[in-house]
Every structure is written in structure tokens, then in C-alpha cells.
Amino acid sequence: MSEEKHHHHHLFHHNKDEDNSAAVYGAGYSENPNDVVEEIHDQEKEKKHHKHLEHIGELGAAAAGAYALYEKHESKKDPEHAHRHKIEEEIVAAAAVGAGGFAFHEHHEKKEIEKEEKAHEKKHHHLF
């Protein structure tokens, strides 16, 4: 157990022993046709992932928006705690905007992958 090494790769602390330069800089230029198929599969997986996250962002925006409307209703219905409900409404409305921005970001990430797929298709000429 003590001989096992735990690999923790963080944003700026990567393992210097691993050489990923070929994977990054040589993408799309391989003599092995299986690599091209694998790259296309990875792009499809990534596009599906961003689409999924886009839908999660949309759901979050809708849920937060609905809760903001509820808090607005509560502020009118409960004048004794109206100030509290208005503050909660504004907080949740800000969360709805953030979730909407996240969905918008993921939508553009998905579109960027689709754009790369089209560029990749144009690069390869199929003779048959």
C-alpha cells in the first residue's frame, strides 16, 4: 500500500514525467487510421458533454427564475418579512442570470467543437 503513488494532477501542477506533447501538438496528423476514428469519437463525446452541461445550465436558470418569482410573490403576500423576501429574490435572480450565462457558454463550446469537426472533415479527402 505504501508503495502506491497517488497522482494528483491539478491545473498548474502536472506530472512532468508524462509527455503529452504529441497528443496536443500532433492532433489530427497520424498515420494510424484508428487514431482518427478515436479522435472523432472523442469529439462526439465532448460535444455530447457540453450539450448535457448546456441543458443543466438551462434547468438551473429556469429553476432559479421560478424561485425568484416565488420570492417576489412572498414579499407581496408577507409584508412583515417583505424585505427578506426581496433580498432573496434578488440573490436567486442573480443565480438565474449566472446559470443562463453558463448555459450560453456551454452552447458556444458545443458550437466550437462542431466547427472543428467541419474543419477536420474538409481536411480529409475521401476518394470513395
How would you explain this protein's 3D organization?
Belongs to the abscisic acid and water stress-induced protein family. Residues 108-120 have a biased composition (Basic and acidic residues). By secondary structure, the protein is an all-alpha fold. The protein has a domain at 42-123. Helices cover 72% and strands 0% of the residues. The chain is built from three helices and no strands. It has helices at residues 21-25, 33-77, 82-123. The radius of gyration is 23 Å and the shape is rod-shaped. The termini are far apart. Residues 21-26 have low confidence and may be disordered.
Write the layout of secondary structure elements.
Elements: H1 21-25, H2 33-77, H3 82-123
Helix pairs in contact: 2-3
Q: Could you list some keywords that capture this structure?
A:
single chain, Abscisic stress ripening, 3 helices, ABA_WDS, mainly alpha, 128 residues
Shape: rod-shaped
- How helical, in percent, are the residues? over 70%
The structure class reads mainly alpha
Rg, Cα atoms, Å: 23 Å
Describe the biggest sheet?
Answer: none
- The total of helices stands at 3
The total count of strands amounts to 0
Q: What is the multimeric organization of the chains shown?
A: single chain
Unreliable residue stretches:
21-26
Average pLDDT confidence is 80
The H-and-E topology, N to C, reads as: HHH
Provide the β-strand percentage band: under 5%
Distance between the termini: 55 Å
Protein name: Abscisic stress ripening
InterPro entries: ABA_WDS (IPR003496)
Family: Belongs to the abscisic acid and water stress-induced protein family.
Organism: Ficus carica (Common fig)
